[in-house]
């Protein structure tokens, strides 16, 4: 009999929102691009097969000469919406979708109380300036809230591009390189 660890909805929400926040802040820092102005991005050249159906995402070019482009799949449902009789219950397997799902838009975030930062002077009494600036960039993404919020945003190195010497052909080559270089023997 297998034991499964099902994280609470609050834990899942925290993890998803944290990952979402990291991407939003990074992608919103590009010049001339605001949260209300979607960036035009080409669809990826590959379609990924999941147990729910096929998915295609977008390639995001990051604003650094040291960072390679990233393949992003936004708003992929991982469970049925927790509405009606499913509210306050563990997640239930989602429905299959026909055709290829274009995963290029963020889905709603889980309902939450947003901090009041409109009065900047009062907000600075409650939080450091860095946090206030961070929240200003983040709030436009948190305004779209819904109980139907069980979605993933997945980030992966873009296919067909070198992502450093060890990752060119995937994780297995990376692990092989670690073993061959003796890193495991010296660090165990």
Automatic annotation (TrEMBL):
Pfam families: COesterase. InterPro entries: AB_hydrolase_fold (IPR029058), CarbesteraseB (IPR002018), Carboxylesterase_B_CS (IPR019819), Neuroligin/BSAL (IPR051093). Residues 1-27 form the signal peptide. SUPFAM superfamilies: alpha/beta-Hydrolases. Gene3D superfamilies: alpha/beta hydrolase. Keywords: Glycoprotein, Signal. It comes from the Eukaryota. Residues 45-160 form the Carboxylesterase type B domain. Belongs to the type-B carboxylesterase/lipase family. This is Carboxylesterase family. It comes from Popillia japonica. The lineage of its organism: Eukaryota, Metazoa, Ecdysozoa, Arthropoda, Hexapoda.
């Amino acid at each position: 009999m297998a034991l499964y660890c099902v994280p609470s909805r609050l834990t899942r929400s925290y993890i998803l929102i944290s990952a979402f926040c990291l991407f939003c802040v990074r992608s919103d820092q590009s010049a001339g691009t605001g949260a209300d102005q979607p960036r035009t991005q080409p669809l990826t050249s590959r379609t990924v097969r999941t147990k729910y159906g096929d998915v295609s995402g977008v390639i995001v070019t990051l604003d650094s000469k040291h960072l390679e482009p990233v393949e992003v799949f936004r708003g992929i449902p991982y469970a049925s919406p927790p509405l009606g009789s499913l509210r306050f219950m563990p997640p239930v397997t989602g429905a299959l979708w026909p055709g290829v799902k274009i995963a290029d838009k963020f889905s709603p975030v889980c309902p939450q109380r947003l901090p009041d930062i409109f009065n900047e002077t009062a907000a600075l009494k409650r939080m450091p300036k860095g946090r206030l600036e961070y929240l200003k960039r983040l709030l436009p993404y948190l305004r779209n809230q819904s109980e139907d919020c069980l979605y993933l945003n997945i980030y992966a190195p873009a296919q067909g591009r070198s992502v450093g010497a060890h990752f060119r052909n995937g994780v297995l080559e990376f692990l092989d390189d670690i073993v061959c270089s003796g890193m495991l023997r010296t660090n165990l």
